[in-house]
Amino acid sequence: MTDYIAFYGSLMERANDPAAPSRTGLSRYISPCRIAGVLRDHGAYPGFFPPDNAPRGSVQSEIVKAELHELVGPEAFEIFDRYENYDPRNEAASLYVRRRIRLLAPEIEAWVYVSQLSPMDPRVPGDDWAAFRGGCL
């Protein structure tokens, strides 16, 4: 079974973040994708909140712009999890948790890092981190 992952922040190709780990040998870019939810500005990086984790009273039909990648390297999760401060053995202490989410487009399931930081941080305009940060972090 092919594993897919949707990047919405500094791991996106179009974010051009020099601090992000190289995706070479770990994932292969497929296409732009769309995810239902809200993107929050946590300062140096964004946080994704799916509709069931969004703050009360926020619009539930927002669409986050992301990139779909196919996972190709066996160590991909280890490297991406470490970068996202996700420890599958201790989710309570993790900044993000990795979850399989059904994308809006294309209509497939992909892994997405869901923020455990404040859902009340400022909204990323247009729910597009790369455009918000000017494509160069």
TrEMBL record:
- Superkingdom is Bacteria
What residue stretches are annotated with the Gamma-glutamylcyclotransferase AIG2-like domain? 6-130
Report the Pfam families cross-referenced here.
GGACT
Which CDD domains does this entry report, sorted A to Z?
A: GGCT_like
Q: Which residues form the signal peptide?
A: none
| Descriptive protein name | Gamma-glutamylcyclotransferase AIG2-like domain-containing protein
Q: What is the lineage of its organism?
A: Bacteria, Pseudomonadati, Pseudomonadota, Alphaproteobacteria, Hyphomicrobiales
